[in-house]
Amino acid sequence: MRTLIYVPIIHTSADLGSLAKDEAKRGVADLGTEAWREHQKTVEGFWYALSLYFNYGVDERRLKIYQAFFAKNLSSYSSHFPFYRR
Fold it and tell me: Which pTM was predicted?
């Protein structure tokens, strides 16, 4: 029997490349400096836990990776995706 493991992706600043500075400014503006730092720590912790799971809990010889993109909430990121308009 196959098992599907659904892993939501939470992007780090490094993933955002040139958008990272603007995203950090918006994060601080929306949440405040302390909450933004906590958010960044949470994201780092998420990736650390995920790496532990996949490094020690999954047989990579039988692993297949699929990527899905759900555009349902993309409107909140329209500044990053100028081609998307509602």
Answer: 0.66
HEC string for 35-81 = HHHHHHHHHHHHHHHHHHHHHHCCCHHHCCCCCCCCHHHHHHHCCCC
Which 3 state secondary structure label does DSSP give 86? coil
pLDDT tens sequence across 55-66: 887 887 878 887
Say how many Å lie between the first and final Cα of the chain, rounded.
41
Q: 């699929």: which residue's tokens?
A: 66
